[in-house]
Amino acid sequence: MRLRLPWQRTAKITLSTENTEQTLNPAAGAAVAFEVTAGDEAERGTELLQSNNVETEELGDLAKLPPFRPVVIRLLRLFDRSDVVIEEVSDLVESDPTMASEMLAVVYSPLFGVQQTVSRPSHAITLLGVERTKSLAATLAMRSLMQGGPRTPIVRRFWVHSIATATLARHFAPAFNLAPEGTHVAALMHDLGRSGLLAAYQEPYSNLACAAHENTAEILAAEKAAFGMTHCHAGALLAKAWNLPAQFQEVARHHHDASSDQPLVALVQLSCLLADDFMYQAIHRGDIRKPEATIAQYAPEHLHSRLTGELEAVTVAVDAAIGALDF
Questions:
Q1: Cα–chain-centroid distance for residue 111?
Q2: SS3 285
């Protein structure tokens, strides 16, 4: 089975320019033109597949889920490094016309509220910072992945759950001594396997997702019985095949384990449960509880008071993030 390569096509975004510096100001209707030939993109895509050893036989029908664009994977790989500079990120973003234009548009959105004219993606990245830029790139990639399939209530429910989990994880990251933006991205992708199973088995997985289940163990058992793997296993396979950072693979595989001694995995486990408690469930389960009870059972004891005290603020943040969704 062959992977579908979304970069094997001509990418063209045309926007009107007002001066020779190609200043982009969406509010004024100005924009920049980018064009990349299909041959160049295909060559980069082939190189990426060869260097990352994507094992389509192991993926099986999961390969029906189109992989992230090459520039997104390269940006995510930067999470493995601590010495990344703005110029390096800018070069990557500007190499992809779709990513560049999306980032420039988002900078002007109410989420960031930038008031000055942003002339190039490098200027936007300077304003946002490297870590937030990587987080934004991952968010745009996940949104594109979700929007690339059928726009069904189930897909939106998966996306809402991922956004809620990621927002919770980012908010609580300092308490776990984790970087907020990297944590946000790992949490955003924790249910990548659900998208893979839905792409591979659309009708049967939709039926499973629409059914009511008593608890998470029942959901995982139903996935295993129907598809030979859980969404955790599917997510880990996809993350490995796409050569995503090792910590993302760990989160995808273990976010439904009973507990973890890895802070990132433990926080995503907790955030996933809390997202369900806030009624942002990917698949309905009957054993949800009050968030305070989930924190008491699953969070480190020394953090109980701190996390419980932040529930009101994080509830507002989650609702705002979901309210801003364009899906």
A1: 17
A2: strand
Share of the chain above pLDDT 70, in %: 76
What is the full DSSP assignment across 4-28? Answer: P-TTSS-EEE----SSTT--B-GGG
Answer whether residue 228 shows pLDDT above 80. Answer: yes
Tell me the residue type at 73: I
Cα(21)–Cα(146) distance, integer angstroms? 34
Mutual orientation of helices 97-107 and 86-94 as an angle, nearest 10°?
A: 120
Per DSSP, the three-state class of 35 is: strand
State the pTM of this model.
Answer: 0.73
Q: Which residues pair with 210 in a beta bridge?
A: none
* Domains of the chain, first to last: 152-327 (1.10.3210.10)
Q: Place 110 in a pLDDT band, splitting at 50, 70 and 90.
A: low
- The stretches of the chain forming alpha helices (DSSP H) are 38-52, 56-59, 70-77, 86-94, 97-107, 121-128, 130-148, 153-172, 180-188, 192-200, 202-210, 216-227, 231-241, 246-254, 263-277, 291-298, 304-309, 311-323
Q: What is the pLDDT of residue 148?
A: 64
Distances in Å between the alpha carbon of 292 and those of 47, 119, 280, 311? 49, 46, 16, 8
Contact of 130 with 136, CB cutoff 8 Å: no
Mean pLDDT throughout 23-37? 33
